[in-house]
Amino acid sequence: MNQEDKIYVAGHRGMVGSAIVRYLLDHGIQPKQIITRTHADLDLGHQEEVQSFFAKEKPTQIYLAAAKVGGIHANNTYPAEFIYNNLMIQANVIDAAFKNGVKKLLFLGSSCIYPKLAPQPMREDALLTGTLESTNEPYAIAKIAGIKLCESYNRQYGASHGVDYRSVMPTNLYGPGDNYHPENSHVIPSLIRRFHEAKVSQSPIVAIWGTGTPKREFLYVDDMAAASVYVMNLPKPTYDQHTSPMLSHINVGYGQDVSIAEAAQTIAQVVGYTGEVTFDTSKPDGTPRKLMDSSRLNTLGWQAQVPLLKGLNQAYQDFLSKISA
Ligand SMILES: NC(=O)c1ccc[n+]([C@@H]2O[C@H](COP(=O)([O-])OP(=O)(O)OC[C@H]3O[C@@H](n4cnc5c(N)ncnc54)[C@H](OP(=O)(O)O)[C@@H]3O)[C@@H](O)[C@H]2O)c1
């Protein structure tokens, strides 16, 4: 990063995009170097609008954190929107970046790109080795296409135009800016809300779906932002040495998983809920384990910094500030 960079953060009002903006501002980037547009001001699904925005603003670096994102229910209900919007956003931004001379771009994917039965922990080379989880297949296919867009532009225009488009695949994220919707949120924000409401209403029991034994990995969103900036700024020879032209993405995880029961107990502790936590074993458990293998990124010199307890404390403060706003 230097003082000449003009950095476009796409999706700057989302959980990850806002964390990237915070991180850049905390690490020497001036506010005037960061370009943002709300969804209302610029719909990234519209090719012409995107091309004219790039032609006018001429960014030099792009963090592509804009996407249509949602849980299982939303993915199942709106599969057409998930595949179409994500394909369009990526294709428009990546092609406009190329046509406007942008050399550096970072695309954010997701761990759902890996096959449902990928060996655990999931390595980057598990990509395209098996059948995807059916509930979010359209979203995952769009994310895989995003990786392949970056790789294809690199392969065709890397040598001639200096194009260097990279991809990172985050594990489950949590933290400030998360969605705490009662029905439509991920595990951590939904448990934060449930334990908080149980504390306020003095409910004696909170019942968690399933046995509590499945294990999941959670990464604090500020760690994700730090990893994104780290990968964007790795020297090209280093990035090239640890990736290959058609297997170029990098996993970003915390490196350890926890059982749902441990996560629930920790959230209860953070929230100050003193009632009983039980498990409704009549409800399904889902995949027993989902953990990323982040050794490629660790070898490149980056490690997550925020332990779960600390991250959850900060996430709970964020939740409290949202409900009092
Ligand atoms: N959250 C996670 O646990 C997680 C895990 C793995 C990967 N990721 C990836 O990280 C990236 C960011 O996720 P997030 O959690 O930050 O999502 P988010 O909070 O939903 O933010 C996404 C942002 O993109 C914007 N956006 C969506 N469609 C747009 C369009 N057509 N034009 C312009 N802006 C548009 C949204 O604006 P509006 O809200 O106004 O539409 C929103 O600000 C995504 O690629 C996601 O797949 C997230």
Topology:
Elements: E1 7-10, H1 15-26, E2 34-35, H2 47-57, E3 61-64, H3 72-77, H4 79-99, E4 104-108, H5 137-161, E5 164-170, E6 172-174, H6 187-201, E7 205-209, E8 215-216, E9 218-220, H7 221-232, H8 236-242, E10 250-252, E11 258-259, H9 260-271, E12 276-280, E13 289-290, H10 295-299, H11 308-324
Parallel strand pairs: 1-2, 1-3, 3-4, 4-5, 5-10, 6-9, 7-12, 8-13
Antiparallel strand pairs: 8-11
Helix pairs in contact: 1-7, 2-4, 4-5, 6-9, 6-11, 9-11
The structure holds NADP nicotinamide-adenine-dinucleotide phosphate (NAP).
Keywords:
325 residues, alpha/beta, six-stranded parallel β-sheet, three-stranded mixed β-sheet, 11 helices, 13 strands, binds NADP nicotinamide-adenine-dinucleotide phosphate
Description of the structure:
This protein has 325 residues and is an alpha/beta fold. It is built from eleven helices and 13 strands. Helix 6 (187-201) crosses helix 11 (308-324). It is globular and about 65 Å long. The mean pLDDT is 96. Bound molecules: NADP nicotinamide-adenine-dinucleotide phosphate. NADP nicotinamide-adenine-dinucleotide phosphate is lined by residues 11, 13-17, 39, 43-45, 65-69, 85, 89, 108, 110, 170, 172-173, 186. NADP nicotinamide-adenine-dinucleotide phosphate binds at residues 11, 13-17, 39, 43-45, 65-69, 85, 89, 108, 110, 170, 172-173, 186.
Summarize this, please?
By secondary structure, the protein is of the alpha/beta class. The protein has 11 helices and 13 strands. The protein is 44% helix and 14% strand.
